[in-house]
Amino acid sequence: MSSIQYIAKLLRAPEETLQKLFVKMEEITGKKGVADKIFEENKKIMAQKLVDLNIPEDKADAQFVEGELLKRTKEADAALFDFLGRPDFSKEDCCTGLIKLVKDIKAGEETGFFLKEEKMKSFLVLNPPKNILSALGYANVGDLIEKEDIYEIFAALRFLEDERWVNRIFFRPYKDLRADHFEKREIKIRVLPQKWGAIAEKFIGQKLHSLSHLKELGLIFIIPLKKEQFPGQSLEVFSLLLHYLHEIDFYSRLFKQISSEADFGGKLVDLLSGKIAGEIPSEKFFWRILVRYLAKKDESDPRLFEAHVNPETIHWLKAEKEMDMFTKKNPKLKLDFWQEADDFVGGIFPAGKKGEEIVSFDLIDNVISLTHGGIGKYLYHQQEALWNKIFIEYMGEEKLEELVIKNIDKGYIEL
Fold first, then answer.
1. Which of 346, 410, 405 is nearest to 12 (CA)?
2. What pTM, to 2 d.p., does this model score?
3. What digits encode the pLDDT tens for the residues 73-115?
4. Closest of 339, 344, 333, 325 to residue 383, by C-alpha
5. Following DSSP, what letter does each residue of 21-63 receive, concatenated?
6. Are residues 24 and 62 in the same domain?
7. CB contact burial 160-175 (16+ within 10 A = b; e otherwise)
8. Residue 207: pLDDT above 60?
9. Phi-psi bin for 357: left (phi > 0), alpha (psi -120 to 50), beta?
10. Is the pLDDT confidence value at 263 over 80?
11. Which of 346, 382, 387 is nearest to 43 (CA)?
12. What does the angle CA 49 – CA 325 – CA 340 come to, to the nearest 5 degrees?
């Protein structure tokens, strides 16, 4: 199997698409042998991982490799859980130490360009959140704003109010926002009081993620949920906190970039909604910018098989590099197996009657699988990282982020 054939299989993309892409990028940059370089790097890292797992390469099959990867993920999660003092994620003080740790790891200025509190309050007055008012027993929105934390209210919009109402009614006035409605301030990481977890579980049961963020507010929030500690939870929260810090910083820079433009509000809404460009003229040579993980909803979305880059993977790469540095200082965490930039690595292994299957060696794909009880296969982090890897090998890591920021409103990078 040739290098391009193998990469195409990992990406589930047509071989012809990859062949044309590598030829065109070689013409543009003058760099040769990139497909072979990526293939050999992938092969070398994967071979070492199999050695570390004590799996002979000629005897490896997809199901067994996946199982051993999950074991390593579970060991690392348990070690991190102990390192953090065995936090109880159902309590408000669960993450004090974890938040401090993440802030120490994520060095540098943690400020950004975010929506002013005064404007946040005006949105609540304009469209009072009925479910929140009812759940907390307030007769009017004025009392809600006076007695409750404004950031907690906005966080609760995500899990207490109807999604259609939030997107179609509450967020509609965002289109009228101006740059002077924003200010420079610190990124906030909050653990919500336990009352919010209890209310959330009453409204929507156990289908709630314990961690989310609001880019325009510069807010990351953790919801204490009354459910048993589950495998993968510590690694999930730890890695997502680092990821969200980079994502919020990225979008803050975008907000600042468009702040002098006439249609600031409209462009802001496009950024927050994850808008993706539609048809791109066929005569152009482009890399589409996918600002969301499309495979989470549809693994067959045709845009996944075009040349594309994904800013989500840029944030993950930065977070994983920070985790690598942290691991070197704390070898007891058992994260050394996942060290080095190997998020793009995947393998194709025999799978019995199925023929063969792709296995992701990306930490985040394996963490997600672990948090879901080992049920289901997750490949989209590895596959998106591999698309980014191809672009980076030709253009460089810094150039990737520069071009994404410059072209994100257009939706594609034209070379």
1. 346
2. 0.94
3. 999 999 999 999 998 888 888 888 889 889 888 766 689 999 9
4. 344
5. HHHHHHHHH----HHHHHHHHHHHHHHHHHHHTT--GGG--HH
6. yes
7. bbeeeeeeeebbeebe
8. no
9. beta
10. yes
11. 346
12. 25
Two structure tokens written together for 114: 């975010």
pLDDT at 209 over 90: no
Same domain, 148 and 49: no
Provide the β-strand partners of residue 357: 349
219 and 254 share one domain: no
Same structural domain, 202 and 266: no
Given a cut of 90, is residue 215 above it in pLDDT? Answer: yes
What is residue 222's predicted lDDT score, i.e. its pLDDT? Answer: 92
Higher-confidence residue of 106 and 52: namely: 52
Q: What is the mean pLDDT of residues 392-415?
A: 95
Of 178, 154, 175, 177, the residue nearest 166 (C-alpha): 154
CB 76 within 8 A of CB 338: yes
Sole residue written with tokens 């993920």: 73
216 and 254 co-located in one domain: no
**Long-range contacts of 124-128, Cβ-Cβ distance < 8 Å, separation of 24 or more:** 124/150, 124/153, 126/173, 127/169, 127/170, 127/173
In terms of Cβ atoms closer than 10 Å to its own Cβ (0-12, 13-18, 19+), residue 307 is: buried
pLDDT on residue 206: 52
Average pLDDT, rounded, for the chain: 92
User: Tell me, what DSSP letter sits at residue 193?
Assistant: P
Q: Residue 94 falls within a domain, yes or no?
A: no
Count, residues in the chain: 415
Helices 62-83 and 363-371 pack at an angle, to 10 degrees, of: 80
